[in-house]
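[09:14] KT: can someone run the structure on this one? pasting the chain below
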Amino acid sequence: MIAGIDGGSREISDPSSKLDSAVVDWVSAFRQMGELAVEFILSSWH
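[09:31] RB: done, structure tokens below
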């Protein structure tokens, strides 16, 4: 979503913005796993 605001052409040529988008992807994936883990723990308690 951030890459769309920056513009795709700059992202390809700039390694730092490429790294930023990779970090954003990793953070969103990690957050999604965290939410799934919380749901699993709560459901196993009940």
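[09:33] KT: thanks! The helical segments are 2-6, 8-13, 15-45.
[09:34] RB: yep, looked fine to me
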